[in-house]
UniProtKB/TrEMBL annotation:
CDD domains: OAT_like. It comes from the Bacteria. This is Aminotransferase class III protein. Keywords: Aminotransferase, Plasmid, Pyridoxal phosphate, Transferase. It holds the Pfam family Aminotran_3. It comes from Paenarthrobacter aurescens (strain TC1). GO terms for molecular function: pyridoxal phosphate binding; transaminase activity. The modification N6-(pyridoxal phosphate)lysine (covalent) is found at residue 281. Belongs to the class-III pyridoxal-phosphate-dependent aminotransferase family. Pyridoxal 5'-phosphate binds at residues 120-121, 254, 311.
């Protein structure tokens, strides 16, 4: 995704038996790995991961195992369905329909139809196709530091990679307003300026003959650094996009499935119901599955003009995995727990921020939280080098986290939803110790 995932190993092993050397010899050196010395993980359970040397780590980062690593309920559902039948989607199968019904029951309003895919990238690609079919336009609005997948169409709209392909001529990147550190009296001016930028971007697309097809956004603006938006911004963008004939796509790959604690979907934080909702990563707890949820009108219109067939999307095994995740979430009331624990974590982080000169604002919501790391010399400048030191030190302390944002200085903590208060206390305790161990100004050695 962003530069958070592009740590280059400090060595290139030469021995044929070295796993990293074998990886480089087959997959190549350009598929990024975390940490200076890449971590070989061999097993997991709940919120814990174990490496090849037997060291155990608290997972404070991974949202793919949404209901915990090696969740027995999900594993058993996959196993039992695989023993029964698995086939492509041109045959009827009750498990697929059962999952579609269960997933759609988590939506309100006009969002009552879905397409199943294999990933979030496929879901976003399909959503763009649906929007273009409906609007007749090609113009896309995204944030200026975003990532929504790795297909050709999505690479053309990606702004949040250290190295990225040129933006398509039909794309306009928006600077998303962040009220962190802004005086309350200045927020209305920031909002007005930001919406004026949206107006200008729309006018530019129209003048170039692209028109406006979609505004595609992640409700938490995760890649951007977990931005704190001024109230009314998303509503203002949606109003302008729709007035120009476009649609709104909410990318819930990182924000969805109860992670915010306040709702099943991130877009529910705003007074906007998108026409298209995309999802992926956490749906199957590690089993590949994605989806586009939309209106009956858009699904039927797309189907009249296009054929969507995907061999593996929505197969019975993937559907069994997805259904097991939803049932486990309901059974354990994980969304409410994410809300409660998220509030506790935020208070702890705010307390840490008051005592550390290297912490700026506290960011995030529910079980997706972070802090921006700044220089302690009074400048409050982003401190990406210190952020990198923190992440490496936390690994040594047995806690896995990462970093994100255009300056690579926002600690990204996004654990499985089975994370409990006892796990939060471990993470926060180690984080406080790690912050206290940071080098002082003038003493930084990389």
């Amino acid at each position: 995704m962003t530069s958070e995932t592009t740590t280059t190993p400090s060595r290139v092993p030469q021995t044929a038996n070295d796993l990293l050397a074998r990886r480089y010899a087959t997959i190549g050196p350009h598929s990024p790995l975390f940490y200076r010395q890449p971590l070989e993980l061999v097993s997991g359970s709940g919120v814990w991961l174990t490496d090849a040397q037997g060291k155990v780590y608290l997972d404070g980062y991974n949202n793919v195992p949404h209901v915990g690593h090696a969740n027995p309920a999900v594993a058993d559902a996959i196993y039992q369905q695989l023993l029964t039948v698995n086939l492509h989607t041109r045959y009827l199968n009750s498990r697929v329909v059962e999952y579609a019904e269960a997933l759609l029951s988590k939506f309100d309003g006009a969002l009552e139809r879905l397409f199943l895919t294999n990933s979030g990238s496929e879901a976003n690609e399909l959503a763009l196709r649906i929007a273009r079919q409906h609007t007749g336009n090609t113009g896309v609005l995204v944030s200026d530091f975003s990532y929504h997948g790795n297909t050709t169409s999505l690479a053309e709209i990606t702004t949040g990679l250290t190295v990225h392909e040129p933006l398509g001529a039909h794309v306009r990147a928006l600077r998303i307003p962040d009220v962190s550190g802004i005086a309350e009296v200045d927020v209305p001016v920031l909002l007005e300026q930001s919406l004026a930028d949206v107006d200008a971007a729309i006018a530019s697309l129209q003048a170039a003959g692209h028109g406006v097809s979609v505004f595609l956004f992640d409700p938490l603006f995760s890649t951007e650094g977990l931005l704190q938006l001024p109230s009314g911004y998303i509503e203002g963008v949606a109003t302008r996009v729709r007035a120009a004939g476009g649609l709104v796509i909410s990318d819930e790959v990182q924000s969805g499935f109860g992670r915010t604690g306040s709702g099943m979907w991130g877009y529910q934080m705003f007074n906007v119901e998108p026409e298209l909702v995309t999802m992926g990563k956490p749906m199957g707890n590690g089993h590949p599955i994605g989806a586009v949820v939309t209106t009956a009108e858009l699904l039927d219109e797309f189907g009249r003009h296009n054929m969507f067939f995907n061999t593996f999307a929505g197969n019975p095994v993937s559907s069994a995995a997805g259904l097991a995740v939803l049932r486990y979430m309901d059974q354990e009331d994980l969304m409410a727990k994410a809300d409660q624990l998220g509030k506790y974590i935020r208070k702890r982080l705010e307390n840490i921020a008051q005592r550390s000169g290297n912490v700026g604002s506290v960011r995030g919501r529910g079980l997706f939280f972070g802090i921006d790391i700044i220089e302690s010399d009074g400048s409050r400048n982003p401190a990406p080098a210190l952020t990198k030191i923190l992440i490496e030190d936390m690994r040594e302390r047995g806690v896995l986290i990462s970093r994100v944002g255009p300056h690579d200085n926002v600690l990204k903590m996004r654990p499985p939803l089975v994370f409990g208060r006892e796990h939060a206390d471990i993470l926060l305790g180690q984080l406080e110790l790690s912050l206290a161990s940071l080098p002082q100004p003038g003493n930084l050695v990389l």
